[in-house]
Structures are given as structure tokens and as C-alpha cells.
Amino acid sequence: MRRRLADHAVTIVAVLVLVYLFVPVAYTFIFSFNDYKKSNIAWNPQGSPTLKHWADPCGAPGVCEALGTSLQVGLVATAISTVIGTSMAIALVRLRARGRRLTDVLVFLPMATPEVVLGASLLTLFVQGFSRWGWQLGFWSIVAAHVMFTLSFVVVTVRARLQSMDPRLEEAAQDLYAGPWETFRTVTLPLLAPGIVAAALLSFALSFDDFIITTFVSGDVTTFPKYVYVAYLRGIPAEVNVIGFSMFAVATVCAVVARLVVRRAVPPSSS
């Protein structure tokens, strides 16, 4: 018995960890069918389960407006940080310029800085600095803040993919008289595509889920995490559970698709 437990110890621990991680997801899914009265924290046996919240996810006032704001912020911040971060990753790997080590440290600083400190600093910067030129806290201040802390994750992800690439492939393209741009477009970029997609998905997830920094710099604009926090103080509506579980399902599908893309892009090595 002890030997069997020892042989399957890693599997048992992995299953327990996965159960622990997915218990909140299960709670979110189950309570999306709750026919609550004032608060959705306790299960109401009268009238539950019900599908009325799934039939009208926008039934709670302001929930879909907050969701739309988070999606817009996430898409814009992801697009900006992915383009800039990919360019920075290529420059850090391929260019042998002075100050590269200092740049590496500066790239990791936003990842190591506590979100409370970063949010308070950005608030001071926006209010005391940019307000002189008419900059107001709102949509674009949230985008700027999200680009700042997601940029590091994009650089790290794309850089890791770039360092694992075989440089002889680009050298072969140049030997076949391909120019720098043609080599980048036909060789480097397709090989980098899985890393770029993974970085973009990670950037969007971090942006969509952020609450602390957004609270500092959002002003009167309400994002979905901010809406959930305010709703928690008076009772989270079941429509939030519907939207939250739907986003989890979409993220799971995207992760599976990205995994399949990476598996097709990198064929298994033959023995």
C-alpha cells in the first residue's frame, strides 16, 4: 500500500491541487443558476436552479457596460504592448548594444513592483504631471497603465521563444539572397508566431483581470473587475457568475487552440 501511494504521490498531489484550483470555478458555475433574492452568496432552494440569468446576462444594471469597457481596454492594451514588446524582445536578443543589461533590469522592474505601489505612482504621475496637458483619468489612463505592466510579460515571453529558435534558419534564408525584411517576414515572424500569440493572450488576461492598478487610475470609468468588487459590497448578481464562467470557458478554448497551434508549428523530433 505504501509503495502504491509512493508511486502515485505526484499524481495524487496534482489531482488535489487541480481540485483546489477549480473549486471557485465550480462555485461560479453553480451559482449562475441561483434564483437569489437580495444576495447571490447563499443558495436559494426556492426556484433554483433557473436559466433566467443565462437567458439575459445583461439583466443586472451596468454589468455589460463594464464588461465592454474591460474588453476594449484589454484589446487596445494588448495590441500596443504586443507590438512594442515584440520589438523590444527582438532588439534585446539580436542587438549587441551597450546598456542591454540595464534594459533587462528595467524590463523586469514592473513585474517585481507591487501593484499598490505601481498604481499609486501612476495616479500621482497622471494627476500631477499629465493633467497640465488636459489628461483626465478614464479610459486612456487605464490603457496606459495596463500597457506599462503587461509590456514586461510580452518581452519575457517573446524573448524566450526567440532564444530557442535556431539562428541557422535565418542564415540559410540570407544565403538564398533573402533581404532583412524578407527574412523576417518569411522565416523569423512565422517561427515567432506561437510566442507572440501566447504573449498576447497573457497580456489580455492580465489586463482584463486587473483590479488594483485600475482602481487607482480609472476615475469614473468602471471595468468588469471594478464592477464585481462594488457589487460584492451589496451582493453579487448571478449575471456576474454567468459572464465570469463564460470568460473562463472562452479562455480555456483559446488555450487549447494555442496549444494545438504550437504543436503543429513545432513538429516532433524523429529519433
From TrEMBL:
SUPFAM superfamilies from the UniProt entry: MetI-like
Membrane topology: Multi-pass membrane protein
UniProt keyword list: Cell membrane, Membrane, Transmembrane, Transmembrane helix, Transport
InterPro entries: Bact_Polyamine_Transport (IPR051789), MetI-like (IPR000515), MetI-like_sf (IPR035906)
Origin superkingdom: Bacteria
UniProt feature coiled coil, ranges: none
The ABC transmembrane type-1 domain, residue ranges: 67-266
Principal location class: membrane
Compartments where found: Cell membrane
Residue intervals passing through the bilayer: 12-33, 71-93, 105-127, 139-158, 187-208, 242-262
Family: Belongs to the binding-protein-dependent transport system permease family. CysTW subfamily.
Descriptive protein name: ABC transporter permease
Organism: Arsenicicoccus piscis
Organism placement in taxonomy: Bacteria, Bacillati, Actinomycetota, Actinomycetes, Micrococcales
